[in-house]
Amino acid sequence: MKERPLIFEMSKPGRKAYSLPDCDVPHLALEDMVPRECLRDDDARLPEVSEVDVVRHFTRLSQLNYGVDSGFYPLGSCTMKYNPKVNEDVAALSGFTQVHPLQPAETVQGCLEILYRMDRLLSEITGMDSFSLQPAAGAHGEMTGLMIIKAYHQHCGDVKRNKIVVPDSAHGTNPASAAMVGFDVVEVKSNDRGEVDLEALKAVVDDTTAGLMLTNPNTLGLFEGNILEIADIVHKAGGLLYYDGANMNAILGIARPGDMGFDVVHLNLHKTFSTPHGGGGPGSGPIGVKKELEPFLPVPMVGFKDGRYYLDYDRPLSIGRVKSFYGNFGVVVKAYAYIMSMGAEGLKKVSESAVLNANYLMELLKGYYLVPYNRRCMHEFVISAQRQKEKGVSALDIAKRLMDFGFHPPTMYFPLIVKEALMIEPTETESKETLDAFADALIEIAREVEEQPEKVKGAPHTTPVRRLDEVRAARNPVLRWKP
Amino acid sequence: MKVINGLKYSKDHEWVKVEGNRAIIGITDYAQDSLGDIVFIDLPEVGRTVRAGDAVAVVESVKAASDVYSPVSGTVIEVNTSLEASPELINQDPYENWILVLEMSDPGELGSLMDAEGYERFCEEEA
Predict the structure, then answer these.
(1) pTM for the full model?
(2) What is the mean pLDDT of residues A359-376?
(3) What top-level branch of life does the organism fall under (chain A) (predicted)?
(4) CA angle A312, A315, A318 (to 5 degrees)
(5) B84 lies within 8 A of chain A by CB
(6) Interface test with A, best of B39, B41, B123 (most A CBs within 10 A)
(7) Whole domain around residue B56: which residue ranges?
(8) Is A416 within 8 Å of B64 when comparing Cβ atoms?
(9) Is residue B124 part of a domain?
(10) Which of A413, A470, A475 sits opposite B64 (nearest CB)?
(11) I want to staple A242 with a disulfide (CB 3.0 to 4.6 A). Which of A213, A339, A435, B117 is the partner?
(12) What are the pLDDT digits (tens) for A212-244?
């Protein structure tokens, strides 16, 4: 691709994209209206470009973008499902957009009602007792949940509980969030079925265990069949169970974390509940708890008394605020619209189709790629490019080659316990035709690895840019334009 | 995959070169190959005491960030600061470019590590 200039580099002095009428009020110098110390010394360095320059520049950029609206996006553990446009219509209603978060509660009863009802809906879906909608995304939800666990143990005078146990297949955010909240992280091994090893778990939990963080189904796309025993082991040691909701798309309407013994849950509305995801979202990571942890939830909660909704700040044991105002409200509205339009039966079908699609795709690929945990998967599965690696072709090369076939690559090199991992999550929104086309592409690439490996190693060939220098990008990132 | 005779090896893919009471520690060729291009390394402070199995450094590649575990107990007496500016040296020669040196507090721990032959077998089983 020909290098296109940045919009700053297109700037020509005096060129502009607007023409304003003559000013019909007396001109006042800026210095006379704004205190000197509030004025900038230099002019803002904004590009001087024409309207058509701006339109072409950003149209071109938008065409380079690859999103779920342009194609299949099987990014494992991310649930890149299609987001129905009706969600956007609902969130754009003026009753939601033309309000201010500091308005008196009496004037925004509708907005508060949405928050209140969403708490009830998410509680029903997960089997928890109460939700805070404040956390801005999944990792923020994890941090909030762990702060609640910490506050709970401290409130009980159980101050020596400073360890959080995570499986070796965990999302990287789990140990990172635990460390952020000041816990020590203890890793527990998976067994040869890809599940938490019960004996290894028993060996690491004791009276210093604050809790266990678990994703179920886990990051291998496998359901932890021993979950009740796992919960029992952790609870008997006095610890709490934290559910990472990243993989909730597999069990909607079928199984509930609350019934499995989890005490704290976070959900990713931008995964499971079909709100935009990636490119900054914004996301939303509501946190749900069981009754005994309710007092520790962030303030404010939305209450309902005498027919009115109100913001409840009178919660003395609360960990406090974790986000300005009430979370990413617009995202909550979109997810609410999704849940209401799907209904209980619809949500159950979501998970059934997500699991069916993943198993179908796994069966198609089995003959061509190593499947390290060869059993029924849930909503996603992991294959390994170890066979291809023997020919000198890595998971990274295969991922890059997929782009030539017009697909977004799957998650690579995760979970860490599988070598040359490719983690594929088709989601429920894809048709059989799309799944077949994706499988055909991967099968074709497996053939290329045998016959012309250099073609795969040199991929991508058809994208606007070829292989990027990831080392340089990581070590010397250029984050802003400088003249 | 390159393995060097005379070094001791851990199951977490670190190597140890013993010089008297000093343990020179790095990561193996297998480790650097699995990690891919290394972009950052986080070195420990000199003077820190570590137990065998403690995370003592962090190696970050384009794929993942991984802990380096100390194969033996002791006190950090030297770190290879040239890796801070050029972490890719580990990819180029993982045995020449050591990460840290420990003054061992219990040289007996070396007995639980593998020799070159044992480590080679271990890697084959892993693959």
Answers:
(1) 0.90
(2) 96
(3) Bacteria
(4) 115
(5) no
(6) B39
(7) 8-106
(8) yes
(9) no
(10) A413
(11) A213
(12) 999 999 999 999 999 999 999 999 999 999 999
pLDDT of residue A2: 61
Q: Which residue of B has its CA nearest to A372?
A: B127
Q: Write out the two tokens for A148.
A: 């609640």
The confidence score (pLDDT) of residue A18 equals 85
Structure tokens at A251: 């069990």
**Chain B within 8 Å of A168 (Cβ-Cβ)?**
no
Q: Residue A309: how many CB atoms within 10 A of its CB?
A: 21
Name the domain count of chain B: 1
Q: Give how far Cα A89 sits from Cα of A9, A198, A220, A340, Å.
A: 37, 48, 36, 14
Q: Residue A300 in 3-state DSSP?
A: coil
In angstroms, the CA A103 to CA A83 distance is 30
Report which of A141, A181, A152 is spatially closest to residue A164, judged by C-alpha positions. A181
Is the confidence at residue A199, as pLDDT, over 70?
Answer: yes
Mean pLDDT of chain A: 95
What number is the average pLDDT over the span A115-122? Answer: 98
pLDDT per position as a tens digit, A411-430:
999 998 899 999 999 999 99
Residue A442 has pLDDT above 80, yes or no: yes
Identity of residue B72: V
The pLDDT of residue A139 is 95
Matching residue, tokens 């599965």: A381
Q: Is B64 on the interface with A (CB under 8 A)?
A: yes
Quote helix, strand, coil % in chain B, to nearest 5.
25, 35, 40
Confidence of residue B65 (pLDDT cuts 50, 70, 90): confident
| Interface touch B62/A471, C-beta < 8 Å | yes
A122 closest CA partner among A320, A241, A255, A269: A269
Share of chain A above pLDDT 70, in %: 100
**What's the CATH code, domain A85-341?**
3.40.640.10
Cβ-Cβ contacts under 8 Å, B62 against chain A: 470-471, 474
CA nearest B38 in A: which residue?
A: A471
For range A244-251, the mean pLDDT: 97
Q: What is the CATH number of the domain that holds B101?
A: 2.40.50.100
Cα(A353)–Cα(A82) distance, integer angstroms? 14
